[in-house]
Design a protein that fits this description.
9 helices, binds cytidine-5'-diphosphate, P-loop_NTPase, binds adenosine-5'-diphosphate, 5-stranded parallel beta sheet, kinase
């Protein structure tokens, strides 16, 4: 089974995808980390504007680098939103994501274009959203819990800028696939989102819920 989870920044995709993967015994790929990794490599080389260098980095990504905590920084996220608009970078990362999805026993992938481009035949597609204010609140709490200094207004501005870039780029823009189910999590906690997602996926795939 392949489950595609897409949606804007800090909507709760990763949290949900991890829990779904555990529940269904599937592998999980946070595809945002791939773009973050490419961005960080380019930032270190002071070459964030160089699409060809980005594609080269994407082709030679070391999977071990994906667990580097530096990828979680706001700078890496903002950089990812820049390099993800380069078609060469998206192309270089496409096959790797498809291979990951195709391997047994199946996978949950979360990102921006999983249901539309990477896995258009996924068994279930969820489009996870929340208001920009709620997403900024969640991201602020997350950064605070990591001991980082937080300016929630700046986070909200970054989220809005990222939404705009992600939704308006020419290649694989952020949007719900025609057959995706939209899950608005603005007023739902993570447990409620998980329960709603299970009900949707079990319904779509004809599974009987585990007792
Ligand atoms: N439904 C929810 N309600 C409140 N906080 C949530 C919810 N889902 C996730 N979070 C928290 O919000 C932050 C962003 O979630 P995350 O899963 O990383 O989002 P994304 O992968 O979409 O960027 C994390 O700190 C996470 O613990
Ligand atoms: N499948 C994907 C995943 C991420 N991305 C880009 O990578 C950036 C960072 O993604 P992320 O999922 O790690 O970001 P958050 O939602 O966690 O903030 C996004 O803003 C997108 O521009 C993408 O274009 N396609």
């Amino acid at each position: 089974m392949i489950v595609a989870i897409d949606g804007p920044a800090a909507s709760g995709k990763g949290t949900l995808a991890r829990r779904l993967a555990r529940h269904y015994g599937l592998r999980h790929l946070d595809t945002g980390l791939l773009y973050r990794a490419v961005a960080l490599k380019l930032i270190h080389r002071d070459m964030l504007e160089d699409a060809e260098a980005g594609a080269e980095e994407a082709r030679h990504l070391d999977p071990a680098f994906l667990s580097d905590s530096a990828l979680r920084s706001e700078a890496a996220g903002a950089g990812a939103s820049v390099v993800s608009s380069y078609p060469q970078v998206r192309q270089a990362l496409l096959e790797m994501q498809r291979r990951f999805a195709a391997e047994a026993p199946g996978a949950v992938l979360d990102g921006r274009d999983i249901g539309t481009v990477i896995c258009p035949d996924a068994d279930a597609k969820l489009f996870v959203i929340a208001s920009p204010e709620e997403r900024a609140r969640r991201r602020a709490l997350e950064l605070e819990s990591r001991g980082e200094e937080v300016d929630e207004a700046a986070i909200l501005a970054d989220i809005r800028a990222r939404d705009h870039r992600d939704m308006n780029r020419a290649t694989a823009p952020l949007k719900a696939a025609d057959d995706a189910v939209t899950l608005d999590t603005t007023t739902l906690d993570a447990d409620a989102v998980f329960a709603a997602a299970i009900a949707i996926i079990d319904g779509l795939t004809g599974r009987t819920p585990a007792s």
